[in-house]
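Morning!

This is the sequence you dropped in the shared folder:
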Amino acid sequence: MQMLIKKAKVIDPQSGFHDQVVDLLVENGVIKDIAATIDKDVKTVIEAKGLCVSPGWVDVFADYREPGFEHKETIASGLATAAAGGFTDVMLAPNTQPALSTKSIVQFVLKQAGGNIVALHPIGAATQNTDGKDLAEMLDMRANGAVAFSDGWKPVQQASLMMKALEYVKAFHGTVMQLPVDASLAAGGLMNEGIVSTGLGMAGIPALAESIMVHRDIELLRYTGSKLHITGVSTAESIELIRKAKSEGLAVTCSVTPYHLALTEDMLSGYDSAYKVSPPLRSETDRMTLIAGLKDGTIDCIATHHRPHEWDAKAKEFEYASDGMAVQECAFNILWDALKDYVTIERLVETMTIMPRAIFGLETKQIEKGSRACMTIFTTAGNHTLAAGHTASASKNNPFEGKKLSGKILGIINNDQFHVA
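The structure's back. Tokens below.
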């Protein structure tokens, strides 16, 4: 395997080549040379306007539905989607059937992903079968490859159980992840509560359903002295609570989805279930607060919340349609389209590779001569359109298909393999 990358800007603060425009030669999975100019006859050459390379990106929360829901997405189709989206590493949500709550299921998904260009990192369930009643064997799963613990789409509602989970993971310096939704306050809601929901006559989910859970879990974190990651933050109130907790030195981190940075509740004015997600799309004020939080470091990571569904899970009355978007393949395009006027590409890359690796203890990757190549290759110039029906995913719920978005993924290199878009 040989690849020559021409005139690429290196985005890697850990590298001596950071912010330089160079040629990079990769042979048999190793970065053999980095120089101003490399002249070598190589079959695979990548060059493009605005070309950039960075350490491989990490998606800290994606759902591939295997085992149990293979008609929505398999691990194979999910990892193909990740590669097309520029991700070299994916943290897998635990909401399979059976759930990722035992070492045997953790071992199963890792075996299914073995040898792939994209590395899979299971998120073990915090409670048995994600039922919110009793703690799962988190230490056992940790020993077999789980990198964090969460009940995923079914956030832990019982405060005493959440406290026990936070206390439990302290023994091995683990991290508990939580989707911030208070089920009792969100019950029956279909979208963000506000002027738009009132005008549409749809039951709303108040911002309080998120912020009260964020507040509760931060207080539990304060009490236990553990580590907490909140994924899918969507409200201005949540950002302020997390910013304050960080200023106090608490070990709290958070991630945001591409669609919460790009879209608002206005997308639901036509009752389009493609935009039904959890937490729901919020107001423009919330969206701009999220962007400010990403810019100033309050938000640490990007989580695609890739949640694939078959066609008829979405093509029904709004009330009965399933939550979620399958956007991993065009996540970068959504992000850059929404953020390019507010956030530098260096800051965006930091949230997609440096921070997630540090928070969840994944191996650090660097762009240096002689190092094993783990890179994402992309351009910030021009536009890209994901053609309808040509996605790598098995799912049918990506509302961004057919839309012209900024930037383009050109390929990834990882595990001694390369994928070129």
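Headline: The chain has two domains: 2-52+368-420, 67-89+154-360.

More detail when I'm at my desk.
O.
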